[in-house]
Design goal:
The chain is of the alpha/beta class. It is built from 4 helices and 7 strands.
Amino acid sequence: MQKFTSKSRKQTQKIASDFAKKLKGGEILCLYGNLGTGKTTFIQALAKALGVKENVTSPTFVLMKQYRIMNKKSRIKNFYHLDVYRLTEPEQALDLGVEEIWSDPHNIIAIEWADKISEILPEKKIDLCFESLDENKRKITIF
């Protein structure tokens, strides 16, 4: 377990960028935390550090977005960003093809509101918990 305290958006981005350097491919990142705790900021910085050139926006209404990793030296080829907040049943995520995505070692998948689909998530995953301590300060715990 790792614990970080971020005092700014920039610090959250740095934590995400450093974390990205440890990823090898095949990771399932499950993000937990209320609105405004820094989940999307973290994911945007993570994607950029992985080599995503596009602007990463939250897929709240489309549920999932795929981004190509443009770093030829990396084993990681795709970054998937899911926001499952609007799902009413965990099985709805299966309709998106998540099992195939998270079983591919060339993909990294980040799932916001992962608690909504916890019963279908594989055992091998990385949990990231985001907590607001005050207006700018965030606690990020990685399990």
